[in-house]
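Morning!

This is the sequence you dropped in the shared folder:
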Amino acid sequence: MAAIRIVTDSTSDLTKDIIEKHNITVVPLNIQIKGKTYLDRVDLEPRSFLELMKKSPELPKSSQPAPGIFKEIYDELGKNGDQVLSIHMTGGMSGTVESAQAAAELADADVTVIDSRYISHALTFQVLEAVELAEQGKSMDEIVKRLEKVRQNTKLYVVLDTLDNMVKGGRIGKGRAMVGSFLKIKPIASLDDGSYTPVAKARSYKQVVQFLMDDFLKRTSGKVVKGIGIAHAGAHQMGDPLYAQLKEAGHDNIKMDYTTPIISTHTGPGAIGFMFYTD
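The structure's back. Tokens below.
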């Protein structure tokens, strides 16, 4: 009987043990910094990247894998008749899903490509649901339908500690960044359905944690929390107390780790992402 093989990209923030346990194929993105090109999480790890980024006068640049790389992977995974389900970071931040879709059209294998509309652990929620259902022998249509539900029930917040990378990337002007820095404003935004939407501003790390925790409790009241993720770019001042409060509230299934260089390039150092999904 043909199996369904799962593919994702390196922005999923999956741990090595999970990748190996479930035989997930992870395709790394590329990141260029100070004249050198690295493969995300292959020859450049999140912590060392943050140090490089702090010393770089220019914003690092990321790029998606070429369609040819995806095609080679798809054909190898599908050579015995297996189907391939390829789940990727939001197309609003990268051309990765477009590259995967282009490869799927050229591949000899039977490939289904999904834009998760999310990043980090929020992408992982869909990957792990797909893995579990595939291991249960569910069909591709059943898995795709379930992932749509997971996507609808996911919430992701991003909090920036500095606006420096937004300035370097041309997203905001230096004047606005200086005002934000002077007032110690921590912008809080949601990333739902691939769209970055500002929702609140905080003046301290404590206020950030309080907002995130209050919102989480309100949105999950009376529901089953299926997964919680905290991804950060060295943001222990927000991540650690948030993790502690979630534990005190009785939640044990919390994934917390440094996020990929691809994401921290957009957010800058000290940023945090908080995400969860429910049934």
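Headline: The chain is about 40% helix and 25% strand.

More detail when I'm at my desk.
O.
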